[in-house]
Design goal:
Strand content: 5-15%
Distance between the termini: 80 Å
Shape: flat
Structural class: alpha+beta
């Protein structure tokens, strides 16, 4: 056979798999990430991650088969009933989406400037808590998130930086 024909057939074969690869990558990105759910057994907030690879692969052929990859309640026996919350609101359970929505719709508690869109390339906002204590983005954990978002107010990145400098110099909490 002609080598050119082999080359053409090889290129056609590779190009035929591109739509599947794109679908898998999109589905994987949709199912990855830490999620915060209310455990139906304990009625307490728990953090979970899904088996994103399995969910992505099954979503290509039919509806996604969701399975837990990790849960903050494990190793206890778990019927995984919390997956119903993820199925009903896949984006709503994501910690990053909750934080993004909470901050982007808020104004700074100190300077009243709108927080605006969060970006990976800009400094992170923070929280102003009771007693005017400042919590930085890096101090947030998914398990404490519901309580913190109900008891704290948002701080823009500039105010977090200003207060952080004063705290480092010994001035204490935000004034």
């Amino acid at each position: 056979m002609n080598p050119t024909l082999f080359l053409i057939l090889g290129i056609a074969f590779v190009l035929a798999w591109i739509p599947l690869a794109v679908s898998l990558v999109r589905a994987y990105r949709r199912f990855r990430g830490v999620r915060l759910v209310v455990c139906p057994e304990t009625i307490s907030p728990e953090t979970i991650t899904l088996a994103a690879g399995h969910a992505a692969w099954t979503s290509v052929t039919s509806s996604a088969d969701l399975r837990l990859d990790s849960c903050s309640r494990w190793p206890r026996d778990c019927p995984q009933n919390c997956l119903e919350q993820v199925e009903s609101s896949p984006e709503g359970c994501l910690v990053r989406e909750r934080l993004k929505n909470w901050w982007e719709e808020s104004a700074c508690a100190r300077c009243a400037a709108p927080i605006g869109r969060l970006s990976w390339f800009r400094p992170r906002p923070g929280l102003l808590g009771p007693g005017r204590a400042v919590r930085r983005w890096s101090e947030l954990t998914p398990e404490t998130l519901p309580e913190l978002l109900s008891t704290h107010r948002p701080l823009c990145a500039a105010c977090v930086r200003r207060v952080g400098t004063r705290v480092a110099e010994g001035a204490g909490t935000a004034a």
